[in-house]
Amino acid sequence: MGRQIAVHLLKKDCEQLLHFVRNRDPVIILKRDTTSAELAEVARPCAEAGIYTLWNRPLAPDLARKSVEHHPKIGARYTIDGRLPVIEFSYRGPAQEWEGRPALEQGRLWTGFESEDRRFRSWYGSVTRWIRKNFIRNPVSVSGDVGPHAYEWFKKGGCFLPQLRPPATAVWLSWMAAQDKHRA
Q1: Number of folded domains in the chain?
Q2: How many other CB atoms are there within 10 angstroms of residue 103's CB atom?
Q3: Whether this model's pTM surpasses 0.85
Q4: How much is the pLDDT for 1?
């Protein structure tokens, strides 16, 4: 069974988190899904939204992508198996607009926890502890944690969305209005 920690991040929050991850361990950040089997490091993952793999090299020295499909128009597709001792990092990118309001979608750090390796469990634990120590518990009804820059943005009128962009229904619109009341 997998584990995840949900996060709302702005670019600076993303950079701080990945700075910690890279300085603690020899971690390479990869795109999770690509059209090539090559393991190419992403130099600036916080520059754009994406689903990334945090690869702690000593914990998975033989990491390789697996082929998942061959699409006639796109060609081959490769991914990194989530059952390996890696952390999937979903960064939703900069705030966007939802129903005329500035809104930030929720990202996450997830692992399948298929590995019994104590070193991997310790590494994942260190990342989640860092988040819990340096981020703010989400102040509204969405679970997870909020980076300090995202929290300041929220206090100035930004709204938090769940991981999937919701439809503009009365329930979701009232939920956004509740965030305004929380700020007041």
Answers
A1: 1
A2: 18
A3: yes
A4: 64
